Amino acid sequence: MEILIVGAGPSGLTLANVLAAHDVPFRIVDGKPGPVRESRAAIVHVRTLELLDRLGLKEQAVSRGVPVTRVEVYERGRKATGFPLTAGSGASPLALPQDQTERLLVEGLAARGCEVEWNTRLLDLNGGTAVIRRPGGGEEDVEARWVVGADGAGSRVRHALALGFAGKTYDQTGLLADVTTDARPAPGTLRLNLTGGGFVGMLDLGDGSHRLFGAVPPGIAAACTGDEVSHDAYAQVSLEDIQRWFDDLFAVDATLTSAAWTALFRIHSRMTERFRVGGTFLIGDAAHIHSPAGGQGMNLGIGDAVNLGWKLALVASGRADERLLDSYETERLPVARSVLRGTDRGFALEAAESPIATWARAHLAPRLVGPVMRLGPVRERVSQLFAQTWIHYRDSPVVSGPGAGERADPGMTPADLLHHLVVPGEDARVRAEAMFANPPFGMGIHLVPAADPLVRLIRPDGHVGFAGPLEALPAYLARVYGGAR
Ligand SMILES: Cc1cc2nc3c(=O)[nH]c(=O)nc-3n(C[C@H](O)[C@H](O)[C@H](O)COP(=O)(O)OP(=O)(O)OC[C@H]3O[C@@H](n4cnc5c(N)ncnc54)[C@H](O)[C@@H]3O)c2cc1C
Predict the structure, then answer these.
(1) Which CATH number is correct for 3-42+97-165+272-351, 3.90.850.10, 3.50.50.60, 3.40.50.300, 3.30.70.20?
(2) What pLDDT band is residue 89 in, cutting at 50, 70 and 90?
(3) Which atom of ligand 1 is nearest to the CA of 36?
(4) CB of 264 closer than 6 A to ligand 1?
(5) Can you give the pLDDT at residue 399?
(6) Which residue minimizes the CA distance to atom 53 of ligand 1?
(7) Cα separation of 190 and 201, whole Å?
(8) What is the CATH code of the structural domain delimited by 169-268+359-387?
(9) Are 122 and 151 within 8 A, CB to CB?
(10) pTM of the predicted model, to two decimals?
(11) Which residue lies with its CA nearest to atom 41 of ligand 1?
């Protein structure tokens, strides 16, 4: 087996879907018996929906989730302000619990005739030899040319590579719960309660329940769980404790009636210094973890998986040179660093504890946020940050030309995992078709109105790889893909 994926969380499952879509064989193993049961990451952002579209899974995601179209900011139980969440494109994020996202990805794999090997754990990794424990308890040595560590924050693959995971652990404790409450924010609305004591958000999950997410100041959580919340595990918290925090800490004027799931967890902000060592890659939480501010983590891991996936598919099937794989780290490491910086800043605003910060959060923010967010350019910028549509690879060595590395307008080409060449005008189309009588890697050729004279090569992840005159394209393909076939 050439490719072994360790971990079938959202990142590993997405990578498996991309490889399956390219008919590239792989194994994917996970120590758990099946997908997660908890709702964990509950927001699928706009960029991720675009990527799910390329996997053919967007419609099912949308049919199972609730579009989040509006944010309302509450101060001591009263609505202070609100603003729409849709970006200029009109697209909204989706409230979809992580267990459902994972099931969707498992179903996507099944539809392509592939499945996860559950109850199968990586014990050790030495170069390309992985030792796994199979469901019956027996051990197996797996020789793989490429191993992808998608095995989460405690990644055994990362440990085997002796890579660090530098960063910090916050003093505050994260709170998550899926509850029913008499507060009932309107469907599609994210309610943010800001107080000096911290913040708690409430998100409609579409099944009559609401996701609570927030940060509990240091010391308070430990008093409830009777123990410090461990670094990696979740600790349960009682409905009574959350109600008390609602009343005393977050000043939410609402009564909780039941909880399907509650969790307290340590909040980390960490990343590793390398995303690739030889034939071994790290994606998702194995490479970077964040504060929950903005719900970025799962979405970023899915982006990693798509970026690596199409490159690995081309290389493993002999349609591109191995050096294309170098660009996974070059492109995704700076993105992760940037998201880490942004989520740290966001979390500092949400949870900082200095007297000025708590005063500003309780009194200034509820009044300022709405008017500021009604300013078009500010709203657009903030929406892009959350939606991850800002992500670009302008500085990547494998893109070339004006606007290369940018996310292409998603409506420009079919939403699939192929390369597409966008050509301006009929004349360019005729020349392109003559040049690529047998287009490399199944590349489609599409005509667009001749607004400017450049042709654009759109990569399977929706980013512009090349922009320039048609005649320069073969040299680009030779440089970046080697003998592209
Ligand atoms: C409380 C909380 C709230 C969050 N909220 C959000 C949010 O709103 N939005 C967002 O985008 N993100 C959120 N996240 C982050 C999100 O849950 C993670 O970023 C996401 O699950 C990462 O996916 P992953 O596939 O990289 O890793 P994981 O989901 O951790 O999956 C790793 C998989 O690897 C398996 N595994 C581990 N070790 C081995 C081994 N040795 N052998 C075989 N298998 C192994 C595990 O069983 C697991 O299935 C949140 C996270 C937490 C903790």
Answers:
(1) 3.50.50.60
(2) low
(3) 49
(4) no
(5) 98
(6) 40
(7) 7
(8) 3.30.70.2450
(9) yes
(10) 0.93
(11) 122
